[in-house]
Structures are given as structure tokens and as C-alpha cells.
Amino acid sequence: MTEQQPSAPARAASGRSTGGVEHVNVVHTEHFTVVGNHLLQHPELSLTAIGLAVHIQSLPAGTTVGIKTLAAKFPEGEIRIAAALRELEAHGYLARTKERLRSGRVVTRTVSYNHPRAAVRAAAPELRAEEPPAAAPAPLAPPADRTASDLLVRLRAHDPRLLLTERDVRRLAPAVSAWLERGVPAAAVLRTLTTGLPQDPIRHPAALLHHRLTADLPPHPPAAPSPASEPEHRPDPLQTCDGCDRAFRAPHPGRCRDCRTAAPGQRAA
What we know:
Layout: H1 8-13, H2 37-40, H3 47-58, H4 67-73, H5 78-90, E1 94-100, E2 106-112, H6 116-130, H7 146-158, H8 166-181, H9 186-194, H10 205-215, E3 238-240, E4 247-249, H11 257-262
Antiparallel strand pairs: 1-2, 3-4
Helix pairs in contact: 3-5, 4-5, 7-8, 7-9, 8-10
């Protein structure tokens, strides 16, 4: 039996301080969603991103969660919602990939992670079990490649055909690190590896990923000018289009040139 909380006047009369938040909690027995404090109290996510993540986690599987659909439901608008989705992608709570169906129609596949770190830890033992080492095993990856290794392990959540062995992860991690060291966001690397995959079975996923990582490797960013030299023009950072998720260079997030031309009335302010 749950003990009843005293009313606010009773607490004030008893001399207890009423400063700060007080909780009146009722146990939910239906229509509720369990959300971790690692998300609700995340030190780097905005309140918009946290609220959007909780909303998405509460939806039934198969619900559409595109930018336009969410903007029609909430007052924040497409720009703020698109920025919040990018935050969730950057911190591993969300993954969005474009897939072309056999009919030719392109759809966005969205995967929501209610505990990204736990999902990565759960996938790692399966990779180790697939290929028992013949000798003393080498570490999964050097500390510098840990982010790259985690990204490669998460690929199987986007497409089961991209399940990699531990040896494949160790071999591909330096190539992923090369992208990250050149200023490419992890979300953009993830899209490069998971977008436009063939419809047929993938017999050698590591070879396919290696080809994409080497053939599409972007150039190094320009070196910073020395204090004595004249400042050089630096290219705008890579942004993700709010309309089509395509990568493009611009000083601020928004829409790419094609989306602005196709829908001038929806330009970002």
C-alpha cells in the first residue's frame, strides 16, 4: 500500500522548507513510457531535443517521425525540430538513413535508441562470439579509435546485413577515424555507410564499407593560417539539409540549394 504524501499546507505547518521542486508521484499501471535519467538530465542536449526524444520513444513502432510530420504536431517548427533531430543523432539516441525501395520510392528509416551506450555494449559480445581468437586476442581498437569502433558496431542496428566481425571492426576503425579527424560528424559518416545500400544480399559487408570509406574520403580541412600571414578563406562547415538530409556546406543549418529552389516558401529565416 502506498503511503499518502502530506498536503502542501500540512508540510508548511510542520516547518519543512517548501523551496525547490516537490514530487507528487502516482504509480502508472498503463499508458506509460520508461525513460532513463541519462537522457532526461543529459548535460549537452537541449530541452527541445530531450522532449523530442521522449516523444519518439513513446510512439508505437512504425509511426512516422519525419520533420514535416513533427512540425505539424508541435509549435516548434521545422527548423528547431530539425536541429533537435541532429542533436539526437550526434549523441546516438537516433539514427536516420535513406533507403530506396524496389518501387524506386525513397523512404527514411529511423531507429530510436533509448540507451545508446547499452545498445553498443550489448552488440559487442555478439561480435566477439562470432570469431573466437586462435591466439591472444588484440584489443578491439586503440583508445583513439574507440569512437570509430562504436560507430562500426552500431551499423548492424541500421541494417542486419552490416554485421561485422571483431577483425573487421579493428581493420575498418582507422579508416573511420580518418573521416572523423577531417572534421566529418559521426552522423554524416553513418549516413555515408548506410545510405543507398544494394537490395540484394551483401555477402562481404566489410569490403563494401572499406570501398566507401576509401573512395569517398573527403579532403583534409585547410590548415589554419599562421599569425604572420594573411587570413585565408575557410570553407563553411558541413550541414545536414533540413529538407532532404543531404550534406552541404553553409555557415548555419538550414536547407540545401536544391530544396530552397524547389520550395522557396519554406526557406529558413
